[in-house]
């Protein structure tokens, strides 16, 4: 693809989103959906953040590789991301693992997911490819990262978070020189290398990679022929480039998009029940760490046509109210008290019930006199009258899944089993 003068690099790039993850640490939340399709923030899904970042950065060619329980993710793409027009050189392709290479071969690893679709990427005619994870929450301008990639002549540019040294043991960590060139890539090291001149912090991989497509294409073909490879970017492709090529670190702080109110770059892996609950509850803060109200960098999603939220009853002890909470459309808060909570679309809360630090996914019904605290409620769950959760850990563990951090996950299957046992 021949670049025109003054052409943005993003218009010569495509985003390849890896969205096949099982997300097993989210337990029952991913029983029926892949992790990128899990709801987040009141009306969006996790994958909307990576896709919105790409769209807002000027990228109009995207591909999404799916594998595990992909139906709800694919349906979300078809409903919410169907506005790309091929006649404007815009594309969004959904690439399920479909045994295109051999009948026995699903996607064997993150790199293999791209390798099996080389012909499709070729058809886009792009110069650069950005590999993205579909399961993180953040706002980032990929154009800034592309500019660094081109300016430094890197073979790969890797998005990096600055994290305290003690926390870096949970990540893939970059050892960099003074120019930001990566000299070593260590997976979850016990003693992480720190940033030159900053002994308290390390650079952790965000799982975001920028390549020249021609370079990556050749590398993927060689990797695909290597029977000893696990065909994974983090395990195989990146260490190979660090050893034999030029790998550069890109610091997230340089391309993080903020509205001016956030006090630090925001990136979260919401891969556990505790992390998922915390990131959602964070949005209810007076000044949230992530600003979803920034119209200059919108998070696109499937916008359902629903009526406004409604609050009814105004008697002492039976007042429909919500304080420090996010309440989505089509919710009816009927004579109940909601505090520091997040209600997704279509929730119903009935008289004399209370909710505090609760994340309720779409279409949850909370019946009368229920008392709920510190919990995540799966989509469509009907909370029975008088249920108390979040006050007695032993009682909670008897019927529901209680996390290490004390957050209770409630699904309809758990409630049905409880009802059957209680009889």
Ordered list of secondary-structure elements with their pairings:
Blueprint: E1 13-18, E2 39-40, E3 44-45, H1 47-56, E4 61-66, H2 71-80, E5 91-96, H3 110-115, H4 118-124, E6 128-133, E7 136-138, H5 142-152, E8 156-164, E9 172-176, E10 182-187, E11 201-212, H6 213-224, H7 233-244, E12 247-251, E13 267-269, H8 273-282, E14 310-312, E15 314-315, E16 318-319, E17 321-323, E18 326-327, E19 332-334, E20 337-339, E21 342-343, E22 348-349, E23 354-360, E24 365-366, E25 371-377, E26 382-383, E27 388-389, H9 393-399, E28 401-402, E29 408-410, H10 412-422
Parallel strand pairs: 1-4, 1-6, 4-5, 8-12, 14-19, 17-20, 18-21, 19-22, 20-23, 21-23, 22-24, 23-25, 24-26, 25-27, 25-29
Antiparallel strand pairs: 2-3, 6-11, 7-13, 8-11, 9-10, 9-11, 15-16, 28-29
Please explain how this structure is put together.
- The protein is an alpha/beta fold and 423 residues long.
- It is 23% helix and 28% strand.
- The chain is built from 10 helices and 29 strands.
- The strands form 6 sheets. Strands 1, 4, 5, 6, 8, 9, 10, 11 and 12 form a 9-stranded mixed β-sheet that branches. Strands 17, 18, 20, 21, 23, 25, 27, 28 and 29 form a 9-stranded mixed β-sheet that branches.
- The longest helix has 12 residues, at 213-224.
- It is globular and about 70 Å long.
- The protein starts with 12 loop residues before the first strand and ends with a helix.
